[in-house]
Write a structure and sequence with these properties.
291 residues; two-stranded antiparallel sheet
Length: 291
């Protein structure tokens, strides 16, 4: 890790621990997220080219994401021989995971607020890191906040033009589970974020060889907890049905939105991210402890 990377990690960790936005302000003022995980990727890693076809049509490469800042008429890499990506994981607080673990049909209030107020905080963290890098004379962008970000329909259903989970996979932070969530050293119950910059830095090692290495079900069929946890029946041996999942959280849970305290366009579910062995760690790895 070079000096720039160390500075970025320190900024992310400090912001998560000190920002008043990282608080469940309408519940009890406790932290939304625990200490983050941070990883780095080379913006020219071949994985990013692969994502343009396997994730979604029009999925941006880091260079394409950064190109939105290029002056009109210039190429997408003016003076940018190198492009780097920083990715982070924001683990849901233990009390939030516990509250959602106890639910069977819809999310807990803490989970619902974590989904929406937590992403507001995540956006503020994205902007903060962009500002930190710009103050060093670099060019930086948070792709999900840029003009190039949007949603498209791919072969597997609705997808974005910048998948934070796939970026985190490229940065060595985790692998995918049966539910499509990213299983990390802090589990699958989290939010992801990233920023692209015109800087060179060493990539974090990827301590896995396959995209499903941390999922017990996809390794040996020994789990399947997320199948049982899904109230929509959207997870099965074949994987995650995005359309069925989306229909449930946006329509089947509409009545639940009338319950006092729920926020956002839809409740957000997340039941598959709690109550299983990958909730807060990598199953079978030393140091994992449920709860």
């Amino acid at each position: 890790m070079n000096e720039l990377q160390a500075a970025v990690v320190a900024e992310i960790e400090t912001y998560v621990s000190t920002s008043p936005l990282n608080r469940l302000r309408d519940i009890d003022g406790s932290p939304i997220f625990d200490a983050p995980l941070v990883g780095f990727a080379d913006g020219d890693d071949p994985l990013f080219e692969l994502y343009t076809s396997v994730v979604a049509p029009g999925h941006m490469t880091p260079r394409q994401a950064l190109a939105v800042l290029a002056p009109a008429g210039e190429s997408e890499t003016p003076g940018w021989p190198s492009v780097g990506v920083v990715s982070w994981i924001l683990p849901a607080a233990a009390e939030t995971r516990l509250s959602n673990r106890q639910m069977v049909q819809w999310p807990s209030l803490r989970w619902n607020h974590t989904r929406f107020q937590g992403e507001e905080f995540n956006d503020s963290l994205r902007r903060h890191i962009v500002g930190v890098l710009e103050n060093r004379g670099l060019v930086a962008v948070a792709p999900v906040l840029s003009a190039g970000f949007g949603y498209v329909h791919g072969a597997a259903g609705l997808a974005s033009t910048w998948s934070e989970r796939h970026v985190a996979y490229a940065a060595g932070l985790g692998t995918f589970g049966l539910s499509d969530g990213l299983i990390t050293a802090r589990g699958i119950a989290h939010r992801c974020g990233s920023v692209v910059v015109n800087a060179a830095w060493p990539a974090s090692p990827r301590p896995y060889t396959g995209r499903h290495d941390y999922c017990l079900y996809l390794q040996d069929g020994s789990c399947g907890a997320c199948i049982k946890r899904c109230p929509a029946g959207a997870i099965g041996p074949a994987g995650h049905d995005k359309d069925l999942c989306l229909a449930y959280v946006k329509m089947a849970l509409t009545e639940e939105m009338s319950r006092q305290g729920y926020i956002g366009e839809y409740p957000a579910c997340g039941l598959c991210q709690t109550g299983g062995p990958c909730e807060d760690g990598i199953p079978g790895r030393a140091g994992y402890a449920a709860g």
